[in-house]
């Protein structure tokens, strides 16, 4: 049985731990490898390697760090197909979705390539007589990223490219459910010229995480996962004096207005609800349909679309499946329990995905697309994040009722509205209490040069990921105010006839 080890100081490092976690292919339900659960001392060794590497990397010019990012970008593009297949094997999402995930991560790498501009700081001349002020955006030191199973490429690349480009060293703790891609990324970073110790991978569970959260040499922690864990991460890291950005759960709503383009909206809702088997923090899980006629039309169209969906393994081509399995048997059981709770609490189960099977993959962790109608805000399937292919239709009489439901929900990650009316759309974007807003766009994930983050219990910490917030999170400002006394000017100079270059 292949064992996934750690990556410390530029090389694969065997662990002495006797604890392992199985890694499954979700499409078949079979174990394909195991991953080590690192000891606390092994996490400390990675922190030590990152600490020793920090001074040299921090002093490297932004131009040099950007050139490493440029090479890493090219290597990602060259290896895109191979990396996507690694994601499909361990996560289960369909191949094109894996390519899309890598592409969105690649966009953050492209953003980080501009670090010589992004990390310039500011300057003010003559703030007083003969006095100038300028600011420096300096790296923090050792930073850590703790990432979830649903995006083994994209979420780590929300974090470490900007962290590395700004001069920090980094320790990645990936999900134990799909850990292989982290080591692939580490190998490509080394090939791109990243010095040893600047990027490290530690596999493990809470024992490893708690070392990262409490160790005095770790300066900042980034996390994406469920809200209870995000809150724990934020509280623990903050108590130990670290910067922390902890992104939690979501219950993303959309409002379907009666004037919406119904065919366009239906197609958009389908992809946002069932793409990646609903295992996205930006998945659309609630539609607030304004008016019963509007809801009836939507449900009818959704039923027709769902009947034509292809569900199966992620590498099947010609045609490709629309949706793959969920990550594990335990998560499948949890989703099915949510579906049962919806039935028990009186929602109308229009399409039941609990007993979905795929021929030849009967042991795979498949849950079919599930549709509920007549869901009410007091139901568990409305209140909690299911993280599976379950869509709830809530019928509301008017726009204001819909808006109030979104604003009253504990989560505020993303939201959307489908309408042809510009005034309604503009008012929605002004008044809705969520961090990312889509106008006729179901998954409003911003590009890498903007920042990603929600509101309310979808995030803990003041700064979002990537974009301007990402650069600010991984640097700290130092402001220098200076006055120079009169001095004797040098009278002799040496001429040089070579084009000056910087290293």
**Tally of helical segments:** 16
- The spatial strand order of the largest sheet comes to 15-16-17-14-13-19-20
Judged by helices, strands and strand pairing, the structural class is alpha/beta
Number of strands: 23
Low-confidence stretches: none
What is the arithmetic mean of pLDDT? 96
Distance between the termini: 46 Å
Can you give the helix content as a percent range? 25-40%
Radius of gyration of CA atoms, rounded to a whole number: 25 Å
> Percent of residues in beta strands?
15-25%
The main sheet comes to: 7 strands, mixed
Organism: Pragia fontium DSM 5563 = ATCC 49100
GO molecular function, one term: methylmalonate-semialdehyde dehydrogenase (acylating, NAD) activity
Keywords: NAD, Oxidoreductase
EC number: 1.2.1.27
Which labels suit this protein?
about 500 residues; alpha/beta; 7-stranded mixed sheet; 6-stranded mixed sheet; 16 helices; 23 strands; methylmalonate-semialdehyde dehydrogenase (CoA acylating); Aldehyde_DH_dom; EC 1.2.1.27; Ald_DH/histidinol_DH
Topology:
Elements: E1 3-4, E2 6-8, E3 11-13, E4 20-25, E5 30-36, H1 40-59, H2 62-78, H3 80-91, H4 95-112, H5 115-118, E6 123-128, E7 131-139, E8 142-146, H6 154-165, E9 169-173, H7 180-191, E10 199-201, H8 206-214, E11 218-224, H9 227-239, E12 243-247, E13 252-256, H10 262-274, E14 284-290, H11 292-307, H12 329-344, E15 348-351, E16 370-373, H13 380-383, E17 390-396, H14 399-408, E18 411-412, E19 414-418, H15 422-431, E20 436-439, E21 455-456, E22 459-460, H16 467-473, E23 475-483
Parallel strand pairs: 1-5, 8-9, 8-11, 9-10, 11-12, 13-14, 13-19, 14-17, 16-17, 19-20
Antiparallel strand pairs: 2-3, 4-5, 6-7, 7-23, 12-22, 15-16, 18-21
Helix pairs in contact: 1-8, 2-4, 2-7, 3-4, 4-6, 8-9, 10-11
């Amino acid at each position: 049985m292949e064992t996934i080890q750690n990556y410390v100081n530029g090389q694969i490092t065997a662990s002495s731990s006797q604890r392992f976690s199985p890694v499954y292919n979700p499409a078949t339900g079979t174990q394909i490898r195991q991953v080590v659960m690192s000891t606390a001392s092994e996490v400390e060794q990675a922190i030590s390697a990152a600490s020793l590497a920090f001074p040299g990397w921090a002093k490297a010019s932004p131009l040099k760090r950007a050139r490493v990012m440029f090479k890493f970008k090219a290597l990602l593009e060259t290896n895109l197909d191979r990396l996507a297949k690694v994601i499909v094997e361990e996560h289960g999402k369909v191949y094109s979705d894996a390519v899309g995930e890598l592409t969105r991560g690649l966009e953050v790498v492209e953003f980080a390539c501009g670090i010589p501009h992004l990390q310039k700081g500011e300057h003010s001349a003559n703030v007083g007589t003969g006095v100038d002020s300028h600011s420096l955006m300096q790296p923090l030191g050792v930073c850590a990223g703790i990432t979830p199973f649903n995006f083994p490429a994209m979420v780590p690349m929300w974090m470490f490219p900007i962290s590395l480009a700004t001069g920090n060293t980094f320790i990645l703790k990936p999900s134990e459910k799909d850990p292989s891609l982290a080591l692939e990324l580490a190998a490509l970073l080394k090939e791109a010229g990243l010095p040893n110790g600047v990027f490290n991978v530690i596999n493990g569970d809470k024992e490893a995480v708690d070392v990262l959260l409490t160790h005095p040499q770790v300066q900042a922690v980034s996390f994406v996962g469920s809200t209870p864990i995000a809150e724990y991460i934020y509280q623990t890291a903050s108590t130990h004096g670290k910067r922390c950005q902890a992104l939690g759960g979501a219950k993303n709503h959309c409002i379907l207005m009666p004037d919406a383009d119904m065919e366009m909206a239906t197609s958009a809702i389908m992809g946002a609800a069932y793409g990646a088997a609903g295992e996205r923090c930006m998945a659309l899980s609630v539609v607030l349909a304004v008016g019963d006629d509007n809801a009836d039309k939507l449900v009818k169209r959704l039923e027709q679309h769902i009947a034509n969906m292809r569900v199966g393994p992620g590498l099947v081509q010609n045609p490709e499946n629309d949706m793959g399995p969920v990550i594990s048997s335990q998560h499948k059981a949890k989703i099915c329990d949510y579906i049962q709770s919806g039935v028990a609490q009186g929602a109308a189960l229009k399409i039941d995905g609990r007993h979905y099977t795929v021929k030849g993959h009967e042991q795979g962790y498949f849950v079919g697309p599930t549709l509920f109608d007549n869901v009410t805000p007091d139901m568990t399937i409305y209140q909690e994040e299911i993280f599976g292919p379950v869509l709830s239709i809530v019928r509301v009489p008017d726009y204001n009722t819909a808006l109030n439901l979104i604003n009253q929900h504990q989560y505020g990650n993303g939201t959307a509205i489908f309408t042809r009316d510009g005034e309604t759309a503009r008012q929605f974007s002004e008044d809705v209490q969520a961090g990312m807003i889509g106008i006729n766009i179901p998954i409003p994930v911003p590009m890498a040069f903007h920042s990603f983050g929600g509101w309310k219990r979808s995030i803990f910490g003041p700064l979002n990921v990537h974009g301007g917030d990402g650069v600010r999170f991984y640097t700290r400002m130092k402001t220098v105010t200076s006055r120079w006394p009169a001095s004797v000017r040098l009278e002799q100079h040496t001429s040089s006839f070579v084009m000056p270059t910087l290293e």
